[in-house]
Design brief:
This protein is α/β, with parallel strands linked by helices. It has eleven helices and 13 strands. The protein has two domains: about 130 residues, Alpha-Beta Complex (Aspartate Aminotransferase, domain 1); about 220 residues, Aspartate Aminotransferase, domain 2, CATH 3.40.640. The strands form four sheets. A five-stranded mixed sheet has the order 2-8-7-6-5. Helix 2 runs antiparallel to helix 8. The N and C termini lie far apart (about 50 Å). Bound molecules: pyridoxal-5'-phosphate.
Amino acid sequence: MSKYWNPFVNELDPYVPGEQPKDKRYIKLNTNENPFPPSPLVLQAIQQAANGDLRLYPDPNADELRAKIAEVHQVKAGQVFVGNGSDEILGFAFQAFFDPAKPILFPDITYSFYKVYAKMFRVPYQLVPLQDDFQMSIEPFSQDNGGIIFPNPNAPTGKALAADDIKQLLDMHPDRIVIIDEAYIDFGGESMIPYVQEYPNLLVIQTLSKSRSLAGLRVGFAIGSEELIEGLQRVKNCFNSYTLDRLALVGAVAAFTDEAYFEQTRNAIIQTRTRVTEALQTIGFGVVESSANFIFITHPEHPASSLFAQLKEAGVLVRYFNQPRIDNYLRVTIGLDEEMDQFLRIVRDICENARKGETDDI
Ligand SMILES: *Cc1c(COP(=O)(O)O)cnc(C)c1O
């Protein structure tokens, strides 16, 4: 609290990102970063652009990048919006869309930034509970609303919803915007981008942070009808004309020119996910079926909070959410094979030691 703050700032509940620790080297499986470096073409493009031209402002319309994304996803450039990470686009979307007279809907277990934006931009919301197995059902989303937003695959569960279910939602609410946050779609699930022509109320948001290994560059994009994209442009141009800098613009274009690298790295992560899932199941973990680059895991005998602390002590960082319904789960990002092998070794040790401790007590 400060006397200099707008009183509204006291009411805010800022998002808390996963730790970026500086005390020691961890196996970092806590923020869904990609374990592979960006494509060499991205690094080359950024190095080439690090020159005297940095004195000049970047293209405020990001025309080259938007054209590239339009080409890759077979839409018009006017159907593409780019932003400083998809979080920024979500922030603009909360300001640009939604009927302020009715609550927007999102799942009770989901990306925690939605609540933060709702408060910040004074958008009323209502949580829709997921089923016990964390599956999202469509039926409770049929109620009247000011708009709908959720990630697909969902976070932090990793569960995907079928395109047909999302189409049902879009059909139910033709006058409401439905925003699908596809931060993890390249690791599983069906993208809704092919349906933006058919549904003027559909906005799809993606990011280069996860599947393109560029969390540090801050680039996201949205695809939708030109009407929706213009709404985002209007809000952006009332906030900052130059949300993407010159290096981010050229790096992002280069990322989309190296599809071979993209395919290779995302397939490696998907394979490792399958292998780690099976290994964890063998030692008694419940693993939610994941379509993302992370897994959501729980063990009937070992409380997640204690596993989290012991893993951290052993040099492995994962994410623990002390929240109703998920406080016995850990979200574990899929890292390199060697990192995951070490993670599995440490987890097995922790579980075995706990069991030994119990038999010693008897
Ligand atoms: C990581 C993530 C984002 C944010 O990505 P940035 O592009 O890095 O801002 C958005 N939505 C979900 C669900 C995410 O997990």
